[in-house]
Write a structure and sequence with these properties.
The complex is a heterotrimer of chains A (162), B (225) and C (476). Chain A is an alpha+beta fold. Chain A has helices spanning 2-14, 35-38, 67-75, 80-84, 119-135, and strands at 24-28, 31-32, 43-50, 53-60, 99-101, 106-109, 145-148, 153-157. Helices cover 30% and strands 24% of the residues of chain A. In chain A, strand 6, helix 5 (119-135) and strand 7 (145-148) form a beta-alpha-beta unit. In chain A, helix 3 runs antiparallel to helix 5. Chain C contains ten helices and twelve strands. Chain C has helices spanning 2-9, 12-62, 72-81, 107-114, 157-207, 222-279, 285-315, 328-338, 364-381, 436-446, and strands at 88-91, 94-97, 118-126, 129-140, 145-155, 324-327, 350-353, 359-362, 386-393, 396-402, 450-455, 460-467. In chain C, the strands form three sheets. A five-stranded antiparallel beta sheet of chain C has the order 2-1-5-4-3, with helices on both faces. In chain C, strands 7-9-10-12-11 form a five-stranded mixed beta sheet, covered by helices on one side. Classes of the chains: A alpha+beta (162), B alpha+beta (225), C alpha+beta (476). Strand 2 (31-32) of chain A pairs parallel with strand 4 (129-140) of chain C.
Chain lengths: 162, 225, 476
């Protein structure tokens, strides 16, 4: 009886409030895959939008993809399979030459106006550009790039990962 | 003496004879009455436990034949027997086993009652009149409405003692000492039983006595205070 | 009062109530506690998972733009990118933050994350405020640590408040269960205790001699079995006691019958003892001795039989009390004088203090028996002076008889009033019948009084107490 009471009291007291814990593992860590570290430069990472947030999509390509090609691919929009998985783009479908002038900071010039493009769309462009730069393991050092359109120049852009 | 047990009868007879009494014995009540008729004893000593006619019935029949004094022998001093014996008319009782000395003393006391007042004192006292009751102390006669009342010596002595000082209250112990010559341990039921018998003879309505009155808690008195 | 409370607490009812209350509260607490625990887990898991998943998703999203080894600028960009989580990005000695500082990270977490390829989290108590820290290492494609670690924290204050609310509710539910539990317990206790109380009453009556008490058997539970057993026991007891009483009555009746049967031959013998005594002088010497012996023993035997008859009359309940108003001092004096004892005289050894005018309604003959027995006993067994003192005390008359002898042996004292209890076992045959004190006490009790015996240190004292008036309800 006495033991039971003690047990109950201990349980009641210990169950109260938020108790500190030790270090608890919770699933595998995210993996950094880019040519710089893995030695495989045949993937291209494109940023689309899913559920309102930016999400990277990796496409396997036969060869190394440059920033210009990556951005062109991005502007082409998600594939049918990607669209079926819920990926959309906030960018208008555009084509035309994209010129990269390696910096630092790197500057990218588009042949269409940037103003009509939403912040999310700009972010898609910036992140995809960063990913492509990172894949070449040479350009992403300072963390900013500038974007130029036919109407406006957007300096010091960073990839906002949300 | 009426006693069914031969040994007791013989022993008591021997003891009483040595005290100077002349003893006739009977072994049953019927025989006792016969002896009573033929021998005219002064007193009867009667055992209560008798075969055939028992002591109570014998006592009653002897009472009818005359005012003979009777002393009961109660084999058991059980209260019921004592009361029944006294109601049957016994003057006194002695519980068995009997001390011959005690029996002798009782016998003599009863006989004194019967004898002592008999010789007329000499001085002719006037007859006392209490209502329709007339007591003649000299002649030891009591008449009620002119008719003589037959009293046993004990009843007569009781009446004389009480009526000597009308209105005075006597305790039962006083009455026992005066009438029965009993010591301090006398049985007050003797008095009560005798008073009952006396009332039956001299009162108009024994349940509402005028002459012998009960004083609750104390005793008796004669007449009104 | 305190003792009453204590005895009540020691009873079955409070134990039942307590047991019920404890069980009810345990049940309520367990239920409330279980829901509390699961709710708490849900709340904490919600915020923790949200924090972790959000940060991981952000990292996963951003990682493609990061190349190894990162420069401070890369870390700064990374941290900026993770600004919504206020995260801290660490790469070996380099670090950059959009919220928390590197010092805030718990050392244990930091160590674990540095050598791990798993997401780790830890809750810590920060001066009373619970904090949630998550550390996410970045692993390389080959499954080794990259050296990049991201940390974020979240305050659990709101969660703590919500959980405290839950706890309060759980306690409240438990507390509300208490009066209910006590009520139910009292009800149940009464159900159980009613037959127990009935049994107790019945057993009490049985103990007081009411052997015909029985209980009605209700139901077939353990209590009913107990009642059945009780009834059987009572019936058996009644039967046994009845048998014993019958046997005892038989034995007493036998003594009474024997005594009565002895009386007639004794009456005959007693009638002639005087003759033997008187004529003994004229008999040859041997015959005279024999005659005196027979005479003396006959008288003794007569006394014994008379006492036996007296006792058996008490046993049969046929002893009759005839009270009359009397002066107790005079009655006591008469008793003493009648035995030939003379108070005050040198050789009698008897001193009396009998103040007059103490009256009482007593049975004269029975008082005489008591006085004769007590005084005779003192004169026989004690040593002079024997003091006889009469006093009136409220509703009682008290007569003490004190001697200055050796007193009553302690082993005899408790049963000095028993029949044939002899103080001096060596002297097996005393003058008394051995029944004198028994008869004296029976007589005293018949009056509603009693006699007690005690040793004064210089002798024995017997104290007779008799009520002065007839007791209420006494048969006259």
């Amino acid at each position: 009886m006495k033991k039971l009471v003690v047990l109950v009291v201990v349980l009641l007291v210990s169950a109260c409030g938020v108790k500190p814990t030790g270090v608890v593992p919770a699933g595998p860590a995210p993996t950094l895959r880019n040519p710089g570290s893995s030695g495989r430069g045949t993937d291209v990472t494109l940023y689309f939008v899913i559920d309102g947030r930016l999400a990277p999509v990796t496409r396997a390509t036969g060869s190394t993809v440059g920033v210009e090609n990556a951005l062109s691919t991005l502007l082409a929009g998600p594939t049918t399979d990607e669209a079926r998985d819920g990926y959309v783009t906030d960018l208008p479908v555009r084509s035309g030459p994209i010129i990269l002038s390696p910096g630092p900071p790197a500057a990218i010039t588009f042949s269409f106006p940037l103003k009509p493009i939403t912040d999310v769309g700009i972010n898609q462009l910036v992140c995809t550009a960063f990913a492509a730069l990172a894949a070449q393991s040479s350009y992403a050092i300072d963390g900013t790039i500038s974007l130029s359109g036919t109407d406006v120049q957007l300096p010091y852009q960073t990839c906002q990962a949300f | 003496m009426v006693e069914d047990d031969a040994a007791v009868r013989e022993g008591l007879q021997l003891a009483l004879r040595r005290q100077g009494h002349v003893v006739h014995t009977a072994e049953s009540g019927e025989r006792g009455i016969e002896v009573l008729v033929h021998q005219h004893p002064d007193i009867v000593v009667l055992d209560l436990m008798l075969p055939g006619m028992d002591g109570f019935e014998t006592c009653r029949r002897m009472r009818v034949s005359g005012p003979i004094p009777i002393i009961m022998l109660t084999a058991r001093s059980d209260d019921f027997d004592v009361v029944a014996g006294l109601e049957a008319g016994a003057d006194d009782y002695v519980a068995k086993p009997v001390e011959p000395r005690v029996l002798d003393a009782r016998i003599r006391a009863v006989l004194r009652r019967a004898v002592s007042e008999r010789p007329a004192g000499g001085q002719p006292e006037p007859q006392e009149r209490h209502g329709d009751l007339v007591i003649d102390r000299a002649g030891l006669e009591v008449t009620k409405g002119g008719a003589p009342v037959s009293l046993t010596p004990t009843e007569l002595k009781l009446l004389l003692e009480l009526s000597r000082t009308p209105g005075q209250v006597f305790s039962r112990q006083q009455i026992l000492a005066a009438v029965w010559d009993h010591d301090y341990l006398g049985d007050s039921r003797l008095v009560d039983a005798c008073v009952q018998r006396l009332r039956a003879k001299i009162e108009d309505v024994p349940a509402k006595p005028e002459h012998v009155q009960t004083v609750r808690g104390f005793g008796y008195r004669f007449g009104r205070s | 009062m305190i003792r009453q409370v204590r005895s009540w607490l020691a009873g079955l009812r409070p134990r039942l109530v307590a047991a019920f209350a404890v069980i009810m509260i345990l049940g309520a607490t367990a239920a409330a506690g279980a829901s509390y625990v699961s709710a708490r887990t849900a709340i904490l898991t919600g915020i923790q998972d949200q924090t972790m998943l959000k940060l991981r998703d952000q990292i996963v999203a951003y990682l493609p733009t990061v190349s190894l080894p990162p420069s401070q600028a890369t870390l700064d960009a990374f941290a900026t990118a993770l600004k919504p989580s206020g995260a801290l990005v660490v790469y070996h000695d380099l670090h950059s933050s959009s919220g928390m500082t590197v010092d805030e990270v718990p050392a244990e977490l930091h160590q674990t994350v540095a050598s791990s390829t798993n997401i780790q989290f830890q809750r810590v108590d920060n001066q009373g405020f619970p904090m949630f820290f998550v550390g996410i290492p970045v692993q390389t494609g080959s499954g080794t640590t990259s050296g990049i670690e991201v940390y974020a924290k979240a305050s659990l204050d709101q969660q703590q408040a919500a959980i405290d609310d839950l706890a309060r509710q759980a306690w409240l539910v438990s507390a509300l269960a208490l009066p209910f539990a006590v009520g139910v317990a009292l009800l149940a206790a009464r159900q159980v205790l009613r037959p127990v109380r009935a049994l107790n009453t019945a057993a009490d009556q049985l103990g007081r001699g009411r052997l015909d008490v029985r209980l009605r058997v209700k139901g077939s539970d353990e209590l009913a079995q107990l009642v059945t057993t009780f009834n059987h026991t009572a019936a058996e007891l009644q039967r046994t006691v009845g048998t014993l009483r019958a046997m005892e009555a038989d034995a007493r009746r036998f003594v009474a019958d024997v005594s009565h049967e002895l009386r007639t031959p004794l009456a005959a013998m007693n009638a002639v003892t005087d003759v033997l005594d008187e004529d003994a002088g004229q008999l040859p010497a041997d015959t005279a001795v024999a005659a005196r012996l027979v005479s003396a023993e006959t008288k003794r035997l007569t006394r014994l039989v008379q006492d036996l008859i007296e006792i058996s009359r008490f046993d049969a309940g046929r002893a009759e009390l005839r009270r009359e108003e009397l002066d107790v001092a005079a009655a006591v004096s008469d008793s003493i004088a009648a035995r030939g004892w003379e108070p005050g005289s040198e050789d009698s050894g008897l001193v009396s203090d009998l103040p007059p005018r103490i009256t009482a309604a007593l049975d004269r003959r029975r008082l005489d028996i008591v006085v004769a027995n007590l005084v005779g006993n003192a004169l026989r067994h004690g040593a002079p002076p024997v003091e006889v003192v009469l006093r009136a005390e409220r509703g009682e008359v008290v007569l003490t008889v004190t001697d200055h002898g050796p007193g009553i042996p302690v082993e005899v004292l408790p049963r000095v009033f028993d029949r044939f209890a002899k103080a001096d076992t060596a002297r097996a045959r005393s003058e008394g019948s051995g029944l004198g004190l028994s008869i004296a006490r029976e007589n005293a009790r018949l009056h509603g009084g009693d006699i007690v015996a005690a040793n004064t240190g210089t002798g024995a004292r017997f104290e007779l107490r008799l009520p002065r008036e007839a007791l209420f309800g006494e048969a006259r």
